[in-house]
Structure prediction request, 424 residues.
Amino acid sequence: MSQETQIRPSEGLRHVKYEIRGRLARRAQELERQGYEIIPLNIGNPGAFGFRTPETMRLAMIENMAVAEGYCHQKGIFPAREAVVMQQQMRGVTGMSAEEVFIGNGVSELIDLCLRALLNDGDEVLIPSPDYPLWSAAVTLNGGKAVYYPCRPENDFVPDPEEIAKLVTSRTRAIVVINPNNPTGAVYSREICEAIARLAESKKLVVFCDEIYDQMTYDGVEHVPMATLVRDTVCCTMSGLSKIYRACGYRVGWAAFSGNLRGAADYLSALELLSSLRLCSNVPAQWAVQTALGGYQSVRELLAPGGRLYESRRAIVDATKASRFLHLKAPKGSMYAFVRVKTDELPDFDDQSFALDLLEQKHVLLAPGASFNVPYRDHFRTTLLPEAALLRKVFVRIDELLAAYASRPAGDKARVVHAESRFK
Prediction:
């Protein structure tokens, strides 16, 4: 009998992870197949919680379906790219045309393409910690090295530009700014954004601005677009339809380049080459971009007092305040809360073991804090998308589980079984 051939994956994936859709999510699917109802709070997917894309965007796609059946230009259809330019101009960004805008199958695809066009083996990219893990994965997959600048819990998850400056080396090519932030909900002040812009200009770093939550802030907090501040180096602003317009499934994002592009012609040509190799992005959904950006911004209703996202955020803030075990820096933006478990109450707490216990015992799926490339194990991320009433029930279940941990005998290590071993 011939020996079974082992098909081994690429060594390039050795250090790539995306636990938001990883083993916990697969276990949740197994439980659902067994008949359990799982509350999926691990992903910011508005459609899963009853949010609808604005009707005007759906109609724009339908009305243009006849001209959306063939390939379009590799950068995207002109009306969509021009709408992005007009939005940027209204925000004060100058010197941009549709030629500097690339439409992709979501921001996720564009992150990969932009880094692939930029990086050589060993090049470094400054990434916030906590981060959205796709950034780390894309840097690694494209031969780069992710260098993390800390956004510390004790500093409300806001970075220190002086700390960032100390991490720059001769191999540093770019800095990633995720603002409003996923997973923490932090929104950076104008002063912090200015300091990062000046640092990037002085070191000639490309600034990648992940601003997919750009209009999603609470209680009058201002979001400052980095492109309005970066003038003497390349600035790439990334956004899309997924979050503000509740259209994740449309898979439409854009990368808009501004700032000093005089030395970036070869880089933009490389990015266009990569865009050409995948022919084009989803054409029908691109016809919704102009209507989305130029139309009524219904997200504002969701973010105002009484609006669904505002009230869900309030429910989480109130629940964590009332908890013996939890602490939260109230999110100023995005659709997430990054919650800390008080280790003075639970000194043996482990975020991955907790997330698995919560799934198995309480049927709630969260993302452990360790999923976001942080050195600590006492946080978890939840989305704000469910109705406030459901979130209140979720946090009752969380407190019940944490209380069960606390009631066990002091020093009982049996409850701290690392999640890695429990998946085997």
